[in-house]
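Can anyone check this?
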Amino acid sequence: MKRVNTFAVRPLSDDGGQVLRKLLDASAALWNEINYQRLMRYNDEDGFEGDIWGADTGHLEGKYKGVLAASTAQTVRRANTEAWRSFFRLKKKFHDESNNSVTEHPEPPGFRGNEDDGRVLKGVVRKDAYTVDWGDRSRLEMVVGKELRDRHNSPKSRLRLEIVGDPNWPDYEDQGRLELWYDESDSTFRASQPVTVSEETRETPLADETAAVDIGANNLVACTTTTGEQYLYEGRELFQRFRETTREIARLQSKLEDGRYSSERIRRLYRKRTRRRDHAQEALCRDLLERLYEDGVDTVYIGGLTDVLESHWSVKTNAKTHNF
């Protein structure tokens, strides 16, 4: 059975914090360089898969292995490969007239910021390149490259981080590739650890409760469960900031010279707007899933609440409201 432990991590020192930031920044930089090489080949092939796999990713891995370690550099490349293969699968489904499951034209994998405006601090670590010890003082250890080891005196080429909080699945048979990122919404480093567990190692037995989720605009998500709980996530403040940024983009575009459609400042605002939206969505999903798990929900219906609710339970009016 596949499950995921998601937790916050905290460097044990300022020096450790610098190491973690440099690791994630280098991971994002490597992702960008690999992605650029493949995107150029994709464009040269006029939108076909063609020879995008012919990019010299081995050279790029070697360029960053001094910071990331060879295993992590290899894992970044594999993660980008998975993203491109997923893109091509979705693209094929979109063009398949008999398949209407993909409603929007998929886009190639994106970039993780840039050096001038700041890269998105996000990285991956191979399953055998990190260890997690759960206990009174849970910790995460992962490999770092020789350059970071020598510069920051990391013991045994490994960075040690403190884990904040308790895992849902501390006893597992196997672990998968670790994902690490910096959550700008609350200035916290976070990690996601896929694990394989048996039925007997569940923290608590899952109940058979049901939830219905309705996705909207001002109210981003309205959710009601068969336990009688209701959760309402308001998005008015988020949409207000979104509209303000959009108006500023339009104002700046109106001042551009004829023939110009963008500027570095406008591109920064687009990136800022996208990052803010993505962070809010990730925080909302994380919070809602944790609440539904605690309620014993094992089935979630996505769509209009009315039909589902009328057929399963009566609606209460004391919804818990959360702002995002």
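Reply from J.R.: I decoded it. Residues 23 and 220 are 34 Å apart (CA to CA).
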